[in-house]
């Protein structure tokens, strides 16, 4: 299993011989609803568009997960698996093979990788987006992805999981509460899912953020603090921090099957 982190929530996961692009923001700026005075994310240079993508996986319909400028550049014939909200975006852009996954539903990619949707992050008062569990049928290795740190109790039924990708930091807006739940949420998910490896998402990388929203957001936590927290709780899960753009092989072991 190989991973490439492009920064923010953008990942390339190579699992079961398949290349899955997750929540890609690779080119251009990140702006919500064309309100650049409110929030704007920029990087010094665009990320290269990966070759030979088998599937695009989208967890949310917001621009930092379903980024229109990036999606416009990708081949519209690539298969897409998306939350209902994200599916609307790619369908409007002209993608032709879009599978919508509601919570509890699964999709199998070429009989090699299963993708199952679980409840993820709340967006507003009524919408709950997707988190995903991906499993390689041949090796049995599994990856769980939730980019805002909202972990449904339902995911515990899949424990143990080999790899968890989720934030370590807390980001909070005054009066509105947490946007991203990091440290304590990640600690609980490690306790319940017992992953071999955990990787941070949603922060870091070669990105500059500006706008009114960034002046209001309160950010706490770090990878080092999280490592210390794992040690204090006698948890053996390894914390890996990839550098943006570097492809690396995950050091995983096949687990013994429970009897």
What's the topology here?
Layout: E1 2-7, E2 10-15, E3 18-22, E4 30-31, E5 40-42, E6 55-58, H1 68-73, E7 79-82, H2 84-93, E8 98-100, E9 106-109, E10 113-123, E11 127-136, E12 142-145, E13 163-165, E14 170-173, E15 177-180, H3 183-193, E16 197-199, E17 208-210, H4 212-216, E18 218-220, H5 223-232, E19 238-239, E20 247-249
Describe this structure in words.
With 259 residues, the chain is α/β, with parallel strands linked by helices. The protein is 16% helix and 34% strand. It has five helices and 20 strands. The strands form four sheets. Strands 8-7-6-3-2-1-20 form a seven-stranded mixed beta sheet, with helices on one face. Strands 9-10-11-12-13-16-19 form a seven-stranded mixed beta sheet, covered by helices on one side. It is globular and about 45 Å long. The model has no long low-confidence stretch (mean pLDDT 91).
């Amino acid at each position: 299993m190989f991973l490439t982190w492009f920064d923010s929530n953008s990942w390339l996961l190579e699992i079961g011989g398949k290349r899955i692009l997750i929540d890609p923001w690779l080119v251009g700026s990140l702006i919500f609803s064309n309100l650049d005075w409110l929030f704007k994310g920029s990087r010094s240079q665009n990320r290269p568009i990966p070759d030979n993508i088998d599937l695009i996986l989208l967890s949310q319909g917001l621009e930092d997960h379903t980024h229109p400028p990036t999606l416009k550049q990708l081949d519209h014939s690539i298969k897409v698996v998306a939350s209902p909200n994200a599916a609307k975006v790619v369908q409007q852009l002209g993608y032709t093979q879009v599978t919508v996954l509601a919570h509890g539903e699964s999709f199998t990619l070429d009989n090699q990788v299963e993708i199952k949707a679980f409840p993820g992050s709340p967006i507003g008062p009524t919408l709950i987006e997707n988190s995903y569990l991906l499993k390689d049928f041949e090796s049995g290795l599994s990856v769980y992805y939730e980019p805002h740190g909202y972990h449904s109790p339902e995911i515990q039924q899949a424990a143990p999981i080999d790899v968890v990708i989720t934030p370590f930091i807390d980001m909070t807006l005054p009066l509105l509460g947490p946007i991203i739940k990091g440290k304590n949420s990640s600690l609980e998910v490690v306790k319940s899912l017992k992953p071999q490896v955990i990787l941070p998402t949603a922060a870091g990388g070669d990105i500059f953020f500006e706008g009114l929203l960034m002046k209001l957001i309160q950010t706490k936590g770090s990878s080092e603090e999280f490592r210390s927290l794992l040690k204090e709780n006698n948890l053996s899960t390894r914390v890996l921090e990839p550098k943006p753009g570097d492809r690396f092989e995950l050091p995983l072991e096949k687990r013994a099957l429970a009897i």
